[in-house]
Amino acid sequence: MENNPVLRAEHLGIVFGGLKAVSDFDISIGENELVGLIGPNGAGKTTIFNLLTGVYQPTEGVIYLNGKSMAHKKPHQMVKEGIARTFQNIRLFKELTVLDNVKVAFNQGMKYSLLKAVFRTPSYWKEEAEIDRKARELLAVFKMEDMADSLAENLPYGQQRKLEIARALATNPKILLLDEPAAGMNPTETAELMETISTIRKNFNISILLIEHDMSLVMSICERIIVIDYGQIIAKGTPQQIAKNEKVIGAYLGA
Amino acid sequence: MDQVIMFLKQVINGVQVGSIYALVALGYTMVYGIVKLLNFAHGDFIMVGAYISLFAMTGAGMPIWLAAIIAVAGCALLGVLTEKIAYKPLRNSPKLSVLITAIAVSLLLENLFLLLFSSSPKPYPNAINFPSIDVGPIQVSGVTLMTILLSAVSMIALQLFVKKTRMGRAMRAVSEDAQAATLMGVSVNKTISLTFAIGSGLSAIAAVMYCSAYPMVEPYMGSMLGLKAFIAAVLGGIGIIPGAMLGGFVIGLIESLTKAYISSQLADAMVFGILIVVLLVKPAGIFGKNVGEKV
């Protein structure tokens, strides 16, 4: 599986004004793998997500998606190569409808030109109908088809988290980065989320990299875990190995 | 009865000039919505559009509809270039720097056209030979009819474009959260260029309509028109498309009724007075939500 990684990065690092926020970060995620990224607050987890999605340009190292170098690529170009993400603090397009949030993410796969949009040619109608169908299908996977026309900001918190995942999936990714998907959820919602994650992994055949603080979630669904502290990897391994790792226990308990 | 007819005539005048303000205000508001920039050069795009259409008609002998299309294309290009050259390098700079740059672009355009074509106003051909129609005792001129019709069509087309096309969705997404939009595969640069192109193109339509009603073209013609459209955009709630349309009509009506019933000298003062009242009473505008600054 490791032979043909969907996402690979070597010696990835970034410096902010003399401060090494992340250094020497290696990662390789194969097809359909589910990997957890954990670490204490401020360890650099979200910074790594920002590097992997092109929000920050790394000062060191290169990222490869399906073997293709992503050096100097902009985020929207990297999305085309098959990486998508959600955000730690929900960043939906609040004043757009649920359906339009998903459709925006389908945009990059659409082709009709400006003139066709203005004059509403048959190809415009065809593509719009197609996207409408796909977007509703995707919402149905998340059991959200009834809410398609409400504004994203009016959804309950748990649904907003789900919509973010649906929106990310609409970009047709090969790897999905989830930034604390269970943050602020109660145990019932978290359990539901875990189910959602395993469903999408099966249905969409994608790899997932997950940042999470809810240890029960991480330990139960991740196949491999990477632990970072102060921007560096301190441990890698299966959940069982990580649970016993002394460095990890030290980082979390401050010993 | 005469009173009523006179009032209705003023209302029609107000709607005519208001629909021109609305077209210009749309450009202000769309650009503000997406890059949070008050493009003070926007008024001068009207002036450029007026000159382009003037020369297309008098110099190249084109019919007015073709001249209008050329003016729209020219202004759209001007808008895109202005953004690329003047505003894009400053995208991460303080807002004030960009605002000052916009004023500089405005001065540059005005003085460039002053240098090229002198300050003497050029007459605009009367090319809209639309027959006037009588609505009961009121005669509505062809130009008035055409202006109201064309702006209505432009506004409906714009609404459909923004609500129902992939580019429109991208525009709304970028205006809410540009970074999240780019992470969903939307090209922010392309979307911003498109917004400038559409906004500036609308100002060219406004230019042709305005010059057909007031047939003079001169380098400073855009500044007052631009300011009033800006007030219209603020009144409706800057960044909100239906707000700009409503604001335009309200400003047009107030101006025309002030001219008729109070004093024509006070019309401008009245319009600027509205800006002050809006800023005091509801700074977010009619359709705007009052958002408290986060602490």
Structural class of chain B: mainly alpha
Specify the helix fraction band of chain B.
Answer: over 70%
Task: Tell me the strand order in the biggest sheet of chain A.
Answer: 6-7-8-3-9-10
Q: What is the level-2 CATH architecture name of chain A?
A: 3-Layer(aba) Sandwich
**What is the succession of H and E elements of chain A?**
EEEHEEHEHHHHEHEHEEHH
The largest sheet of chain A is:
6 strands, mixed
Shape of chain A: globular
Radius of gyration of chain A: 19 Å
CATH superfamily of chain A, by name, is P-loop containing nucleotide triphosphate hydrolases
Written as H for each helix and E for each strand, in order along the chain, the element string of chain B is: HHHHEEEHHHHEHHH
Strand content of chain B: under 5%
CATH class of chain A: Alpha Beta
CATH C-level label of chain B: Mainly Alpha
What is the terminal separation of chain A in angstroms? 36 Å
Gross CATH architecture of chain B: Orthogonal Bundle
Average pLDDT reading of chain B:
92
Q: What are the segments of chain B in which pLDDT stays under 50 over at least 5 consecutive residues?
A: none
By DSSP, the count of extended strands of chain A is: 10
Overall description:
The complex is a heterodimer of chains A (about 260) and B (about 300). With about 260 residues, chain A is of the alpha/beta class. Chain A is about 40% helix and about 25% strand. In chain A, the strands form two sheets. In chain A, strands 6-7-8-3-9-10 form a six-stranded mixed beta sheet, with helices on both faces. In chain A, strands 2-1-4-5 form a four-stranded antiparallel beta sheet, covered by helices on one side. The longest helix of chain A is centred in the middle third of the chain and has 20 residues. Chain A starts with 6 loop residues before the first strand and ends with a helix. With about 300 residues, chain B is mainly α. Chain B has one domain: Orthogonal Bundle (ABC transporter involved in vitamin B12 uptake, BtuC). Chain B contains eleven helices and four strands; from the N terminus they run H-H-H-H-E-E-E-H-H-H-H-E-H-H-H. In chain B, strand 2 and strand 3 form a beta hairpin. At the A-B interface, helix 2, helix 3, helix 4, helix 5 and helix 6 of A face helix 5, helix 6 and helix 7 of B.
